[in-house]
Amino acid sequence: MKILKLCLVLAASVLFIATGAAMAGETLDAVKARGFLKAGVNGDVYGFSMPDEKGVWKGLDVDTARAVAAAVFGDPSKVEFTALTAVQRLPALQSKEIDVLCRNTTQTLTRETTNGLNFCQVNYYDGQGFLVRKKLGVKSAKDLDGAAVCVLPGTTTEMNAADFFRANKLSWKPVVIEQASELNKAFFAGRCDALTSDASQLAAHRSVAPNPDDYVLLPEIISKEPLAPVVRHGDDQWYDIVNWVTMSLIEAEELGITSRNVDKMLESDNPKIKRLLGVTEGMGKALGLKDDCFYNVIKMVGNYGEVFERNVGPDTKLGLQRGLNALWTEGGLMYASPFR
Amino acid sequence: MSEAVEDTGYNPEAGILKPPVTNVGLVGWVRANLFNGWFNSILTVVTLWFLWKVVPPMVRWLFLDAVWTAGSEACRDASGACWSVITENIRFILFGFFPYDLQWRPLIAMFVLFGLLYYSQDRTHWKKSLLYAWILGLFAMGLLMRGGLFGLEPVDSNKWGGLPLTLLLSVFGLAAAYPLGVVLALGRQSTLPGVRWICIVYIEAIRGVPLISLLFMSAIIFPLFLPEGVTINKILRAQVAIILFTAAYIAEVVRGGLQGMSRGQYEAAESMGLNYYQTMRLVILPQALKIVIPPTVSILISAFKDTSLVVIIALYDILKTTKSVISDPEWLGFSREAYLFVALLYFLGCFSMSNYSRRLERELKTD
Questions:
Q1: How much is the pTM?
Q2: What is the ipTM of this complex?
Q3: Fewest CB atoms less than 10 Å from the CB: which of A297, B84, B127, B327?
Q4: Would you identify the CATH topology of the domain A128-223?
């Protein structure tokens, strides 16, 4: 009898989850009622999401979540960050433990469909590359025939590398090392000829090399890793909010609005700026927020360029160039749809 | 002093000769223990050579050439250990996300806990007043960690981390698991089939899965079954998983102790007219639990170390905060120092537990 009851409860809860697609507006209401946003982050990736020595979250993904909080509450500190592992991140979103996932997650077809998730505007275009010693004289990844390559196991990184070498009919010897810190020691100690990982990570590895100038990033990027904030299927309004807040960062950079000049920009005659900053009413209201929501985002978090420079740009320990993440007007892929 | 030796060692009147110098003292001990035969002599020489090769460089690396407080730049130039990875980040390693300005609160809470634990080791202190002290101490610790009363700023349990979290999970995990384990062991011995079967199923089911899978269930699958909007604190979920897991193991150890009791003890208690609870409380358990102190302590020790598995559900215990620090590019590559530091903390915890258990065994020895 007891077991029967338990089974019934279990079945009922499974049904509940299966059919419990969120009603539009539900997430926003829940977030507002709670008084803060719950965001899932990685926690181990410097420049994207990681606590500093005072325990304050820093990074590009962290700032994206802060921008959403700034739009909803007018206060970027109203976020509670939860560090999630790769396995945990999707269930955490599905079980509503978090409202938005900003955890360097690559947008793929099956993640959107099978896992019932929506990816918003991409906030970082990453891709897998190779780091080699300059002395090796290798100019292209296609010269890496027979090379020993250091790689982390169990990630798409390993599969991407295998695909690349097979497609180019090259032989390679993977040196698989579990820990990122050990991986980089092995590479600098000369146990492998090349190190492969996402380009943003390779930059971090290179920055701590005994002599960073001895190492060079090869030009080939062998995989596409568009990293984007993620929300659940079923609450379109919430999707719109996260999507357009992320776009507003890019739009602001394109229009030349920064956190410093945003107050002056309120008097601008440019209709695009007027609409974005809420001087012309309508944009914020359409999302179910206040009209000054994007003003708050830019004032408190900054535009995309500022966020990039602050967390991963040339002056940080990562020292990344804009590359694919430059505005479309400057040869990159960052392109915001019109705010109108 | 030399006179005293001569007095006892050589007495010409009694005709007693001192044994040859090669048989007594340091030389004698060395001959008897290290060079008594060619095989042992070789072993000794090899070991000494090995120590000579290993110890001086280790001391040099650990202490002499080590960098203690300078930044990571100085560390990369130094040939010794880089202890500044610990000293520069000590507050994050110890307290995690606890608001920086309020970190004195978990610090005091930890001292209160250590003080109470230290005071409780002495069995002459086991009186009613100790119970009140613990209740008061727990209240004070909870207040310091949570805040919200007496003008203390409230801190969400989400922000707990580092050493206080490890201590919370282990001290309360073990304290709650032990009585639960005893109850389960008694239940398994029970003559009531319902109680017995529930206990057997529970123990076998929990022992049949690794702790990792329990933690995963509590962190990932369990929330899916909760009704909309209801979330149970992550730390609490992990704590419950640890308690349930440890209790099942303790139950089996205690059952071993119960089975070690002779039938005569039960009969003696019965013949004195004691009922079940009195029999257990006054006669059986005090003896049975005493027998199983060593295996119980080894379970407690492994449970203490197992709390570090909460890393996989992204709770920032002391191991996770340390790992987080060494994935900062500034400190990338100083994992040895960081892990040594954490190992030292765990060793201190485990060693004091096993030390205390030996002391308890000694004190409780009746035969």
A1: 0.78
A2: 0.70
A3: B127
A4: D-Maltodextrin-Binding Protein; domain 2 (3.40.190)
